[in-house]
Design goal:
single chain, mainly beta, OB fold (Dihydrolipoamide Acetyltransferase, E2P), 2 domains, 12-stranded mixed β-sheet
Length: about 300
């Protein structure tokens, strides 16, 4: 007994056989190919579970996929040809189909259309006979089958039942296996250490060093919003004089007498050597210019008081 693949359904025809015991009809349906008959054992497409097993019914909601479309048409084909067989072979003209499909009426303009949305399996008599697996193929209890999770069923068409009193017939499916594709496995811990509130964000400090182009003075300050004016020529921590040059940004770097030292986080910053004032030697023109700017001083005698 092999599972029928969807792509192979077009290669088969349906064959019906019936028996009559005490005025009760039992109809079996097979797939026929080259005079060989095969039982209808098939997997349903992935669908959404919309009931609990405890209710005695298993209701699945179809998803709009190609596999669902093929599966729905195959079930409808069985229902249609079984109806013709009952009317023509058994001469039961008044018996009507009792379908397990649930239809939803939608209005398309003026005309109403019925679209298949769900299918119902009656499992009240054999709810404990099938096995349930999770997405890792481990057997689970039926209580772990969550409603609204995606499932796949392995089903077999057992027979076609006929109720002469109620003048109805329908398909009798037997569920062998259920595979559950739960979106979230709540049996495993989903909270990781990186999600804890105790995590401490690492804050990286950045220093800006400005050096004057006219002298050897440097200005060092933290790079933050409060010190934004310092980078535009404001006052910072000035060493060696009043700096006028533009600063440059470094990561954990201090500059001392044109020598660069790197220090890591948590390490003490090395002491800087004090700048030694250089000797300024003015030229002749600078001395004459300075002399022209001098003003005469008037001496005031103490006797004039």
């Amino acid at each position: 007994m092999n599972i029928i693949k969807y792509n192979d359904l077009k290669n088969y025809t349906l064959d019906f056989k019936h028996s009559n015991i005490s005025n009760k009809f039992n109809i079996n349906c097979y797939l026929s190919e080259n005079n060989n008959e095969y039982p209808i054992l098939i997997k349903t497409p992935k669908s959404e579970l919309q009931s609990t097993i405890q209710s005695g019914f298993l209701v699945i909601s179809f998803i709009n996929t190609d596999k669902n479309y093929i599966f729905l048409n195959f079930i409808k084909k069985i229902e249609k040809e079984a109806n013709l067989y009952i009317k023509n072979k058994l001469k039961k003209k008044t018996i009507k189909l009792h379908s397990s499909f649930i239809y939803e009426k939608k209005t398309n303009g003026i005309k109403e259309q019925e679209n298949v949305t769900k299918y119902i399996f009656n499992i009240s008599k054999y709810s404990n006979s099938f096995k349930i697996f999770d997405y890792e193929n481990n057997i689970i209890d039926k209580k772990q089958l969550d409603i609204y999770s995606n499932i796949v069923l392995l089903i077999k068409l057992q027979n076609i039942w006929i109720d002469l009193d109620n003048k109805s017939f329908g398909l009798n499916w037997n569920i062998f296996q259920i595979k559950n594709y739960s979106e979230i496995n709540l049996s495993n811990c989903l909270i990781f250490d990186s999600d804890d509130d105790n995590d401490v964000d690492v804050i990286k400090k950045e220093l800006i060093v400005q050096k004057c182009i006219f002298c050897s003075s440097t200005c060092i300050f933290n790079n933050n919003i409060n010190n934004i004016n310092i980078a535009k020529g404001g006052k910072g921590i000035i060493k060696g004089g009043k700096g006028k040059g533009k600063g440059y940004i470094t990561n954990n770097i201090t500059t001392t007498n044109n020598k660069t030292n790197k220090f890591g986080r948590g390490e003490k910053k090395p002491e800087e050597k004090k700048d030694v004032p250089g000797v300024f030697s003015p030229s002749v023109n600078e001395l004459l210019d300075m002399k022209s700017k001098l003003k005469k001083m008037v001496k005031i005698s103490s006797d004039d008081d």
